[in-house]
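anyone seen this seq b4? input:
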Amino acid sequence: MYILVSMKNVTLIAAIIIVAAAVVITLLLAPLSTVTVSVENDWCENMVQEIIESRNAAILDGDTEKIKSFYNTNTKYGMWAFEHQQKKLEYLHRWADKQGISFTDINSKVVVRSAKKKGEGFSLNFLACNEYKYVYENSHEEVNVMRIGTYHSMDVMPFEDSWLITREWYTDPFADSLESDNVKINEFKEYILNSTPRDFSDLNKRRLQAVEYADRYCGAAGEEKYGFSYNKKYKNYNPMGGDCTNFASQILFEGGKFKKTSIWNYDKDASAAWVNAHSFKDFMLYSGRASLISYGTYNKVFKSSYKLLPGDIIAYEKKGKVKHISVVTGADSKGYTLVNCHNTDRYRVPWDLGWSDSSIRFWFIRVHY
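predicted toks r here
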């Protein structure tokens, strides 16, 4: 019996053999440690993804005992990690009551950056892009979406047929609110629930481009297709105290097309007005590039927050110094102002979430594009 094989098929078969051989050779020549690390990271990523997803479900349900089950509370650091998570849960639900909302879903995308053996367990560094969905009490049909990016250092150890967290540290977006109590909740809630969507259809091009930049480079809160990364043209100042103002300056320069000056400048490194939150606020106001809408505690500025436009600035002051800068990027289904920022990374997050401490003062700043 003869088998007829066309030259076209011969070429295809040869190509397949060459590709297969190349893959085998690559694996054989690659250092064993490289292959092992890749497999180990993938396995750890799946394991952490399952832990975070299960914890998210418990947070939605307000189930403290379920959350506790993810931690080894017999260790000091495990207990501290659980207690912090418990405070975070309480704050999130307290803020939701003030807002008149219910969280309907929390989804996280985990990306493990490194995984090292630690005894019988692992020490992990990873980012988590956490997407929260919420609805207002009187309009369940309109689903709002926000994302918060967090960077974690976590130790896990095997226990029976599961894994327990023995230590966890991460950039907490709610750290400035965990000891606070909201006041005048009913008054705020009524005002928010009676508000309506806002129309931003007449924004000028520079404002729109500023928002586009803010969405594109919001790091761990961004879209997966962008690699959850910052703009690599600029230094990441998080290890030096925070990158929020550097990001706001980029938004105004790259997106909003404001020109650099001798005071507000970036050339391999940043000037104080470019990267320092308090200096940035002063520069914007005193240079005439911006003007003040309102200043004060949440109680005082709450209603004026509805005047903010995409591309405007919010500065957050503690003990007489501005410590954080966010850029307005939109509004939700009730017209509540949303912001983007770095450190922690936020995408379209309500402007006061994580900043509810009564000692905080807010600067609402109109940017003149």
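The longest strand covers residues 139-159. Strands lie at 101-118, 121-136, 139-159, 162-170, 290-296, 313-318, 321-331, 337-341, 345-350, 361-367. kinda curious what u guys think
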